[in-house]
Amino acid sequence: MRTRVLPLRPQDAHQAYALLHLVDGSCTLKEWLTFVHNACAEGAIATVKSGAMVARGPDERILGLFVYKTSVGRPAQRLLIVHHFVAFDPFNHGATAQSLLDAMDKLAAELSCEAIRLELSPSHLRAPLGPLRILPDPVAVAGYAAAGVNAMKDLGGPGGLE
Fold first, then answer.
1. Which segments of the chain have a pLDDT < 50?
2. What CATH architecture is 4-154?
3. In the chain, what are the domain boundaries?
4. pTM of the model
5. Angle at 158 between CA 153 and CA 160, to 5 degrees
6. Phi-psi bin for 152: left (phi > 0), alpha (psi -120 to 50), beta?
7. φ/ψ of residue 97, rounded to 5
8. pLDDT the model gives residue 26
9. From the centroid of its chain, how far is CA 110?
10. Does residue 151 come out as left (phi exceeding 0), alpha (psi in the -120 to 50 range) or beta?
11. What 3-state class would DSSP assign to 132?
């Protein structure tokens, strides 16, 4: 069964924090809970331009997440800025990572973004190899190009990076 990616529910903030801490050890639990309270309340994805999405396995465990916000880049270009991207599935890492990447594309379309900027932390660069690595190979396969420690994906269309 493919991993499902859904908005983070506030009641799952503590479980998600364990994954967030893998890529951002400087974020305190209090800061995370405040963010979740403000951006991830019921229905918030439709009304705000920031939030968190989580990948859930068949048993409802959180296997990955990303935090996002929208911003305007160059004139008339809306970006989906994704940070704290982590896929941590020891059994099907690639599928979990791909589910998160697909959800980023869908979310960008829903928010009328022309590009996605995936911000990578130093933790991504130090991540261990093997099935538990944090930054997945599917990132390059999904159309992202390295931009320093960031990866950019043009979604095309008017105002895109073409």
1. 45-48, 125-136, 148, 158-162
2. 3-Layer(aba) Sandwich (3.40)
3. 4-154
4. 0.74
5. 25
6. beta
7. -60, -45
8. 84
9. 15
10. beta
11. coil
